[in-house]
Amino acid sequence: MDHLDLCAKLRLQAVLEAEQLVANDNVLRFEESLHDVINRTVRYGNRSDPMVIYQLTLRTEPGGALFEGTVRYDETFDEIALAGDVSRINEYGKQSDCIDNFKLKKFCYCV
Fold it and tell me: Are 110 and 6 in contact (CB under 8 A)?
């Protein structure tokens, strides 16, 4: 990959915020809804085991980049996976002028 010699390796400087997102218990137990328009009846069953979801805000060095992302933790398989894209939430100005790749630009701190 041609960008490895252009960009510094980012290191975690700080976890600024970590929030666990919790699903409503009724959502986790929902089975079906009968007669949706009139006389609605909702049937609940056993609670499903949800994946644990965290929203994280991190600062990296060099450059002080701020990133926000969501990760899912599957307790059954002991696996962590990124849920969606990682967002750069502060300006990076000229820090990544050495690279033209749009997807990598937010992560690059030019050396």
Answer: yes
**45-71 as b/e, with b when 16 or more CB fall inside 10 Å?**
eeeeeebeebeebbebeebebbbbebb
Distance CA 48, CA 76 (A): 12
pTM for this model (two decimals): 0.72
Q: Where are the beta strands (DSSP E) in the chain?
A: 11-21, 30-34, 41-44, 52-61, 66-74, 79-82, 87-88
Residues in Cβ contact with 2 at an 8 Å cutoff, skipping those fewer than 6 apart: none
Over residues 61-87, mean pLDDT: 92
